């Protein structure tokens, strides 16, 4: 079992790059990691800490590759009371529904009993050309919270 499972939801690939970058940083810090792009619930180990990294598409919508996972949380209400998770959203402030997807995922995970560690980071791509940079800063504090 990996210490941390990075879960990405992405349409154009940006959130996947962020997940891969953070996995590298976590490995450098001594954690074992697994990275899953658009997993289904059954692909995930509840004993591992989940780090969800998701961009937003449409009008506050979850990317297609993570929609089945989200639907499963809403429809099946699995018991995730053993799960700890962190959350990073990527979006653009030009939309009213800024980072709407990570808000939806946070609340669906919590409604299944999962416990969030740290605050949700919301990265505005209008401010950050390279979303890996603010994500790496946030990770510096988050990894101390999960020790
Ligand atoms: C068609 C379209 C719709 C979008 N809708 C939203 C939105 O509702 N809220 C938001 O915060 N960002 C929105 N964005 C911005 C994307 O989240 C942003 O470009 C992000 O970096 C894409 O990440 P990805 O490469 O992981 O798909 C939208 C982008 C596109 C192209």
From TrEMBL:
Cross-referenced Gene3D superfamilies: 3.40.50.360
SUPFAM superfamilies, A to Z: Flavoproteins (SSF52218)
InterPro entries attached to this UniProt entry: Flavodoxin/NO_synth, Flavoprotein-like_sf
Keyword annotations from UniProtKB, A to Z: Flavoprotein, FMN
Positions of the Flavodoxin-like domain: 4-143
Cofactor: FMN
Keyword Transferase tagged: no
Domain of life of the organism encoding this protein: Bacteria
Name this protein carries in UniProt: Flavodoxin
Organism: Yokenella regensburgei
């Amino acid at each position: 079992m990996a210490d941390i499972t990075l879960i990405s939801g992405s349409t154009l690939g940006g959130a996947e790059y962020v997940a891969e970058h953070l996995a590298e940083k976590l490995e450098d810090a001594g954690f074992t990691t697994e990275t899953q792009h658009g997993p289904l619930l059954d692909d995930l180990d509840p004993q591992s800490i989940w780090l969800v990294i998701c961009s937003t598409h449409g009008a506050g919508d979850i990317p297609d590759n993570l929609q089945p996972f989200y639907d499963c949380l809403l429809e099946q209400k699995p018991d995730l009371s053993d799960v700890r998770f962190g959350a990073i959203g990527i979006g653009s402030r030009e939309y009213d529904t800024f980072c709407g997807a990570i808000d939806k995922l946070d609340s669906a995970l919590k409604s299944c009993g999962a416990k969030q560690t740290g605050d949700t980071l919301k990265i505005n791509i209008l401010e950050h050309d390279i979303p890996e940079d603010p994500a790496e800063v946030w990770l510096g504090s988050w990894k101390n919270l999960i020790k």
